[in-house]
Amino acid sequence: MRVLIVEDEPNLGRQLRSTLEGAGYAVDLATDGEDGHYLGSTEAYDAVILDLGLPEVDGLTVLDRWRKEGRRMPVLVLTARDSWSDKVAGLDAGADDYLAKPFQTEELIARLRALIRRASGNASSELNAGDIRLDTRSGKVTKAGEPVKLTAQEYKLLSYLMHHKGKVVSRTELIEHIYDQDFDRDSNTIEVFVTRIRKKLGADVITTIRGLGYTLEDPAG
Fold first, then answer.
1. What does the alpha-carbon distance between residue 197 and residue 36 come to, in Å, rounded to a whole number?
2. Mind listing the pLDDT tens digit for each residue in 30-68?
3. Residue 57 and residue 33: Cα distance in Å, rounded?
4. Separation between Cα atoms, residue 51 and residue 106, nearest integer Å
5. How far apart are CA 116 and CA 107, in angstroms?
6. What is the Cα Rg of the chain in Å?
7. Does residue 149 carry a pLDDT above 70?
8. Which ranges carry the OmpR/PhoB-type domain (predicted)?
């Protein structure tokens, strides 16, 4: 899953980026509203963390522009104070959730997970496909109750497919959502990761749809 952070406080921006990367997300960081708006308009993100008090262009304006452009990614706004007017303004502009500073990073990550789950139609923090379980809270994967060790990129790919279970996902979409902007993106690595996942979870866990991409189906449904 790929997340955009738009935050002008250098220390907080770096801390959030490091924390989210440690939690298994691909992360891009913008430090002002102009760059944030550009990235959110041109790149694919599963969620955005948007500070309202930004230089160049304020967060509410950025959010309003995204929504008018038809950008539908979930947005969590950060407010400098626990003000009801800030919350109302953010929600009215198209935000999906809000969090007042200062906050605990654990709460931010929990809210982010919930936004991403809801956006893909999943209510539970545990994703299932047959006997495969992926716990988005702990980042653990099991098959028939037995833990399975995945690399960071294998986990990101599996997580994205499980969030979009039953849908055909192209290589391009996978690349856009499991790598950050600065990563050297190579479509051939996707097939490598898929092959590794099949070896660990079963040859039929991910189906290749020739010319279209990959799909992960639920054997039970």
1. 34
2. 999 999 999 999 999 999 999 998 988 999 999 999 999
3. 4
4. 17
5. 14
6. 18
7. yes
8. 124-218
